[in-house]
Design a protein that fits this description.
Largest sheet: 7 strands, parallel
Helix content: 25-40%
Strand order of the largest sheet: 1-2-3-6-7-9-12
CATH topology: TIM Barrel
Number of domains: 1
Oligomer: single chain
Radius of gyration: 18 Å
CATH superfamily: Glycoside hydrolase, family 3, N-terminal domain
CATH class: Alpha Beta
Order of helices and strands: EHEHEEEHHEHEEHEEEHEHHH
Structural class: alpha/beta
Strand content: 5-15%
Amino acid sequence: MGGVQVDRTPAFVSSTLGGVQVGAILLVGQATTGTRGVATAANRARTVAGAPAGVHAIVAADQEGGLVQHLKGPGFEPIPSASEQAQLTPSQLRTRAEAWGEDLRAASVDLDLAPVADVVPASVGTANMPIGALHRGYGSDPSSVGQHVAAFVSGMGQAGVATAVKHFPGLGKVRGNTDFSAGVVDRVTTRDDPDLAPFGAGIEAGAGFLMVSLATYSKIDPDNRAVFSEPVIDGMVRKDLGFDGVVLSDDLGAAAEVEAVPPAQRALRFLRAGGDVIVTVEASILPAMTQAVIAAAKSSRSFRSAIDQHVLRVLTAKRAMGLLTCP
């Protein structure tokens, strides 16, 4: 999933996406052109993405609310932060989320990289830089967080917008933000942690996508970041949660946490751990990632077979989203 600035020129979009066939596009930056302007940008990006005939690219956006609402302007209702959404009843939130989803559908957006399912303990609060300090979480009680996560997913689904719960297995107990800091480690979360429950609630409510974090979880897999961890993706996501939907990486493009890892290795390690779709807000590294994956698939039958499974999951999701028009 390559990031494309929504306000860039058609020539820029073509040069960014035209040489690499991507199956999904992430609209990044701050758009104030409203639903019509975003729809124009989204459809232009789809056209030049180079997808096979009958298979349409997913267009995604980060539209959580509060400080993380990238699409604004006429037609987009302002979305309150998750901490404000938490003051609504689940029923109220479901209704509101459906309206926000209708705005996204009008803008030709298929997938919202939300909601945040991370539980931030009250003892940590705003010292938690990625979630608590930015008011991106639904609270400190996993039961209440799970109800609100499920309501958001359900409301978006009613509007025909897919959702991606994030950031598994949770960023609520860390201090640093992996976007801006390297060496972010969670030394508390365990494989059977009660704070994992909101992710399951989101999946039960119909979320077809799940995003894995870039942090390292020392009590789960001390040797690998979650996004590169087989125990996390294959073990916890696939086996413990029973999730057979699409696993997304958190940003493998510009995040400080992975800056020291060559782009090709970022892609290969994520896919080998069991992930399906690589997310990068920095589209310029897509060729290096793509070439590495193609080369590995040519040289390894087992890797090629794994890639087939990743592709099948994505195509299954696209069929559910109405993005397949194959006979």
